[in-house]
Fold this sequence. Notes:
Blueprint: H1 4-17, E1 21-30, E2 40-44, E3 49-51, H2 56-72, E4 76-81, E5 94-98, E6 106-114, E7 119-123, H3 127-138, E8 142-147, E9 164-168, H4 172-180, E10 186-190, H5 197-204, E11 211-214, H6 218-230, E12 239-240, H7 252-271, E13 294-296, E14 303-305, E15 312-315, E16 318-321, H8 325-333, H9 335-339
Parallel strand pairs: 4-5, 7-8, 7-10, 8-9, 10-11, 11-12
Antiparallel strand pairs: 1-2, 1-6, 2-3, 4-6, 13-14, 15-16
Helix pairs in contact: 3-7
Amino acid sequence: MLSFDEFFDRVAALTRQGQPFAVATVVARRPPVSARLGDRAIVFADGRMEGFVGGACSREIIRKQALEALKSRTARLVCISPDQTELSEPSVDRVVVPMTCASEGAVDVYVEPIVRSRTIVVAGVTPVADALTRLARAMRYEVVRVVDTSEQGDIEADARLPGTRVATLDLLPAVLGDALASGGDCAVVVASQGQYDEGALEAILPSGVSYVGLVASKKRGATVRDGLFASGVPHVDRLRYPAGLDLGGRSPEEVALSILGEIVQLGAQAAGVRAEPPASATSSAAGGPAAGATAVDPVCRMDVAVSGATQVAEVGGTTYYFCCGGCRARFLKDPQRYLAPTP
Length: 343
């Protein structure tokens, strides 16, 4: 377990490296629990944990909540308690999880995601591109202006602004790769008014960025889309044109606002997706557990990370995973009790 100084040195190093992670800190407890006030853990995007926030049950709950916090980019207070009366009081920033293991204690853990700022890549030197840069910077996006070499001098002032970079079109693949590194979130808007729409989109669409918008009329956008289809460019169906929500805006600032609104809306929708946990571990085509796979403990119904799981049992040719040795022992004593269909 890391000491106080070691813990924050580790956090500082990970932040400098640009790695996404979450910090979980015990802020309240009700014995009997093994966690102490101030106990901390780091949860990585792949589910690995460093540190201590409690026993097996609490650990798996916090692992799952930390991964969800990283996905939503929103901090939360996780209240783990056997008191069923508390379960009716969750809110957006407070999650209440029932403690189904043998312990009768309770623990509150504050989970804070540490992620890179969202990146928005704006291609073009147009009034909409300029307005989008200004609004995105006000929203604390990292902005990358991508322009033709001949246009660099036209936006030289942008290169000196905090949180803004300028790159040429030939560097667009590298810009996207850097923005997506270590789980970064990236949106791209092409606003060149036809000057290099197709060329930019040919580099952008295969990259897998979360949002690709084209500032163009419906007719012009359809023409660009059809040309990209004909050229065999992948993921053309992800192209959004005209970029932005239909707010009726006409000025460059209003159009920029509608584009950022659409990016925020789609990001919130993606973060809200919650896949139902499988009854047993998800497997890869090769027959092993998929990366990041989880299984449901048949005794307490808690999600358990398959990778590195130590409490495992095989019954009838099926492998089951458990949050702790107590659940495994109860299962093995009477498997059919826990495998019977729930009425």
